[in-house]
Amino acid sequence: MQNAAFPNKLLPYLLLAPQVAITLVFFYWPASQAIYQSTLREDPFGLRTSFVGLDNFRAVLSDPNYLGSVWTTVVFSLATALLAMSVALLLATAADKVVRGKGLYRTMLIWPYAVAPAVAGMLFLFMFNPAMGTFAYMLRDMGVPWDPLLNGDQAMVLVVMAAAWKQISYNFLFFVAGLQAIPRSLIEAAAIDGSRGAKRFWTIVFPLLAPTTFFLLVINTTYAFFDTFGIIHAVTGGGPARATETLVYKVYNDGFVNLNLGTSAAQSVILMAIVIALTAFQFRFIEKKVHYA
């Protein structure tokens, strides 16, 4: 039996070259520049630069506003990931039971993933706008004093709903694939043994979805940290009173709005380290509870 081999020894490197080039240009080069700039103090016009070592990191970590953004990011990320994954799992289990028109239902539930984050944010801003939003009018009619432009808690709820809605379709796609991979013989055996409804789901189906759930947990955490900038920028702009200013949005505010380039670069390095550490923690401890069949 002969081993498969490329007839051209140069071909494997040519196939890998585009991905390697993209990774170097769009990840490693910006990351190295951020680390370098985090040790500098620059004026907004880049005319004078001085090396300050770790002073930018000390200034960031002693800033009460930055520590507040850390807490805001934790709350926002946990709420977004839990809401997006819970609703997606509920929709996936419901769609898996559909017999007629199954493909149509799944296609309609996947479509929202094609919506850009900024567009998703604007949709929720229009629907829940205190002046003209339909849902805002319904909430006020129910006696709820809805005004996310002034109430920080309501603003947080609004951006969490918008961010979770954007991610539900992605989670739904993987949960459906995970449900389809579960052998029907196990479900039928559980039904014969008298295990039905919620008990069968939590004791048989959900444990078999553990690899998919763990994968989505990592993806949703990264999404909440990085990919929700457009939603927050469109809906609240980090307000009111910094109530929705997450770490990634504070990097933008300090770097592009306030032109404090050194501390902004330090914040981006800290954010990158947090995400790497969080992902490593998930793989180190949470994956132990995941069983791969």
Task: Tell me about this structure.
It is found in: Cell inner membrane; Cell membrane. Belongs to the binding-protein-dependent transport system permease family. This is sn-glycerol-3-phosphate transport system permease protein UgpA. Residues 70-282 form the ABC transmembrane type-1 domain. Part of the ABC transporter complex UgpBAEC involved in sn-glycerol-3-phosphate (G3P) import. Probably responsible for the translocation of the substrate across the membrane. This protein is mainly α and 293 residues long. The chain is built from 13 helices and two strands. It has helices at 11-37, 55-61, 64-96, 102-110, 117-127, 134-141, 152-181, 184-192, 197-208, 210-227, 229-235, 247-257, 261-286, and strands spanning 40-42, 49-51. It has a two-stranded antiparallel ribbon. β1 (40-42) and β2 form a beta hairpin. It is globular. It starts with 10 loop residues before the first helix and ends in a 7-residue tail after the last helix. The mean pLDDT is 85.
- Helix/strand-derived category reads mainly alpha
Number of strands: 2
Number of helices: 13
Note the main sheet: 2 strands, antiparallel
